[in-house]
Amino acid sequence: MSDIKNPSANQMWGGHYSQGPAETMARINASIDVDKALYRQDIAGSTAHCQMLAAQGILPQADADAILKGLEQVLGEIESGDFTYSQSLEDIHMHVEARLKDIIGEASGRLHTARSRNDQVATDFRLWVRDAIDHLDGELKNLQLALLARAEEHSHTVMPGFTHLQVAQPVTLGHHLMAYVEMFSRDRGRFQDARKRLNESPLGAAALAGTSFPLDRHATAKALGFDRPTANSLDSVAARDFALEFLAASAITAQHLSRFAEELIIWSSSQFGFIKLSESFTSGSSIMPQKRNPDGAELVRGKSGRVFGALISLLTTCKGLTLAYNKDLQEDKEPVFDAADTLAICLQVTAGMVSDFTANTARMRESAMSGYSTATDLADWLVRSLNIPFRDAHHITGRAVKLAEGKGVRLDELSLAELQSVHSGITQDVFSVLTVEASVASRKSYGGTAPELVQQAAKTFRENLK
Ligand code: ARG
Description:
By secondary structure, the protein is mostly helical.
């Protein structure tokens, strides 16, 4: 580096350049504002690489010691905020190396032996995504615990279950909340699957073809917590499907959060009045003094768009790329970082809203009794007690619903004589299945909404939670 004649050319790669880039080129090329988030992973990767180079006799131990000490100092400076960033140094890799040179001098130049920024950035990025997965897994688990607590509390709380957002059959609030616990379990599973495939080390693939130095890629892989080195050097530097899988899992999680947010918004409307969101996650209106707007839930619903966008963004960036590295890939980080941050805050806010909403159980019960929600229970009773085929029972029940509708009453408010006018075989016993409590208690098939099953599901989940 010391023999580069033209000081305006790039100090890292400008040996055959006589001038620096256009100002606009420098701006489009610089990624430091985004990839500075990789500093910890970058220094960890360099540390592992340096130790391996020394162990393999590729680097004199004295230089390695100086480099390792210098890297530690750079890490400390960045973490304490005592570090100067410059657009001309392009990215985090060059920042760390340039600062290392300031600190230890020429020996710093040996660190990049048998390495390229291509395998370096692929390694850093995998490490970052792996950390993000572990962090998001913790957030997902917190949300599940919040849901679980409310599900246990409300295992007996009856609310309407909907299809088409029309009252269908009574369910319990606990059962409804446990449905999301299931979704978030699968989300965690998707992140774990992605983590398994991600956990291979690209370090040592060098620019694209591997290197002539006698590296020990297994050693660096192990030092960085990877399961093994990647098997193909071209794939190592070109592949970003680990980030795509992360974004796909993130997008699905965001979509689950958005559905739930939508429900919280609907439930908290005065028309529904099922729940009241706490002051902590709502805001008032500057003009309408009575308002409590569900901003937290709306933002969770709205921010799902950013996460979906991140997936589409990276898919599009990668789709036309020939092997191996292309600079387009520098665009990979921003969507991933943004999706991870967005998802983390959405998970935290959702957990907060779950923990402190108040449930209007009387309102939910009353609503569950509307819409002839126990019509299926009547049909099932006809099948069970009078041995009527279900299709016929369905028809008879339809007539009972029509009769009740005409009189403006619920099914259980019809008299026995009125019910017998629909089918003569109906007895007093039918009333035992027409309440919403009886309805939910009877739904004991595996995975059903019966309160005892909800409690059991919550208990099982708690026991399996590591
Ligand atoms: N900042 C670059 C990126 O994020 C590092 C790799 C640069 N490699 C290169 N051949 N120019 O992709």
